[in-house]
Write a structure and sequence with these properties.
Elements: H1 3-14, H2 17-21, H3 29-32, H4 44-51, H5 56-68, H6 74-87, H7 91-96, H8 103-108, H9 115-129, H10 133-142, H11 145-154, H12 159-173, H13 177-186, H14 202-220
Amino acid sequence: MDPGLNQLLKWGIENSEASCTDPNSTTDTKAERPDWPAGRPLNPEALKALMGGPSDADLMKESMAAIQSPDVSVENKLVAFDNFEQLIETIDNANNMESLGLWTPLIRQLSNQEPDMRRMAAWCLGTAVQNNVKAQERARTTHPMSHSMKLTNWDTVTGTVRRKSIYALSSEIRNYQPGLDEAIKALPKAHKLDGKVDAGDMGAVDRIIDRLREDSKAKAT
């Protein structure tokens, strides 16, 4: 059975007034799923399965297809990017990017000739990896950290690209030591801190990010 429909069936059983009040009912929902509180809201994916609408995975793939299509205008590509970014705010959707084959095409957009496309790609990267070790690991294996560092420092076309790239880099390195170590190697000497930096030390990470932001502002003047 489709997982969404299976969850829908369980939801129906748990929220069935007859099951809860009929003394002759053989369904003990609390015994079957004690971890599910009464009145648990229906999973959006299950609701979509019921209504026949596209799943988040379908919407993510459609958005990326539009982003890559030569027949879609830049304006509409940016709309697709905005939709994609909202979808991957959910950690489960961000983790599904790997199985859907969406990491490589996303990273490829960081090199797009259109500054706004690079900006949106960096924004999506930052959203996908934020507080998500699995996504941080996947991002690191998909593109070198030096690429993110290059965008934060040498994307001279527009400051908005640098700002979103700094946001992405900040998300890539927080609480993720391999990413931070790799980023530090690519840092300009003037931005490096003395000694070993712990990825869990938010104060130290903030100092690195703040220096990059100050540098970005200086380039804009």
